[in-house]
Amino acid sequence: MIGLGTYAFLWEHSERASQPLSLVGAFERTRELGVDLFQICDYAPLELMDGIELRDAAAAARDLGLTIEVGTKGVAPERLTRFLELAAVFDARLVRSMIYAPDSRPTLVEAEAWLRGILPAYEAAGVSLALETYEQVSTADLTRLIAAIDSPALGVCLDPANVVARLELPRETVELAAPYVTNIHVKDFAFARQPGWVGFTFTGARMGEGLHDYPHLLETVRPRERGVDEREVNEIVEHWLPWQGDAETTVRTERDWTRATLEYLRST
C-alpha cells in the first residue's frame, strides 16, 4: 500500500508555515490525495497528547478510512512499550523505530537483549517493529541483528538515502536488506555542488529527478508482490526538502513533491 508520512508534511507542520497543519489536518490532506495510509513518524506532538486527544485523532483517522502506522526512535523497553500502546489506540499494525534515540545509544548486544524482551508483546499484539536503515548503524549490523533475533514481528524499514552518510551505496543496502524489509520510506535524493566548488550538499530531490534507482528497489524487494502468508510492505512517501526561502514557496514545493511522488509510485 502507498502511504504518506509526517515527513511529507514537514514544513506544513512546522511553525514556519503561515497556518501550521495539525495531525488531523494531515489525515484530511492524505484522504484528499486519494491515499489510504498515513505514518505518524517522529511527530513530537503525538507524545504530548492526552488520552482524549489521542482517541479523537484515532477516531478521525477511522472516519476518513485511513490505516495508521506510528514511528519513533530507539529500542529502550519503555519506549517500545509506549509505542505499542499508541499502536493499539490507532489500530496500527506497524511501529517504525531506530536502534539509537537522542537519549539512548545502546550497544548492539544491549539492543538485542532489549528487543528480545519486548518482541513477544509485539508478536502477541500482531504488530510489526521495523528498524530503519540509517547512518549510525551499518546495514550489515542491522540485518545481522534482525536475523539473529529471528522474530516474525521484527523487520527493516528501508531508507536507502540515510546510509549514504556512512559511505554505503543505496543499491547495496537495498539488496542486503531485501529479505527483511517490512516498510519502505520513499524519497529521491541527489548531490549538488556547493558554491565555490568547496564540497557537496546531499539533499532531497523531486521524485524521479534524483539518484534513487527506485525501479531496482521494486525489482529487488517486490513490496507489491507479497503472497498471502507474507507480511505487507507499505511504501511511505517522505521528503528531504530544503527551505525554499519563504514559507509559501516551501509549502507549495512540498505539496508538488508529494503529488509527483504519488504519481510516480502509481505509475510504476
UniProtKB/TrEMBL annotation:
Pfam families: AP_endonuc_2. It comes from the Bacteria. Residues 27-259 form the Xylose isomerase-like TIM barrel domain. Its EC number is 4.1.1.120. InterPro entries: IolE/XylAMocC-like, Xyl_isomerase-like_sf, Xyl_isomerase-like_TIM-brl. GO terms for molecular function: isomerase activity; lyase activity. The keyword Lipid metabolism does not apply. Keywords: Carbohydrate metabolism, Isomerase, Lyase. PANTHER family: HYDROXYPYRUVATE ISOMERASE, XYLOSE ISOMERASE. This is Sugar phosphate isomerase/epimerase.
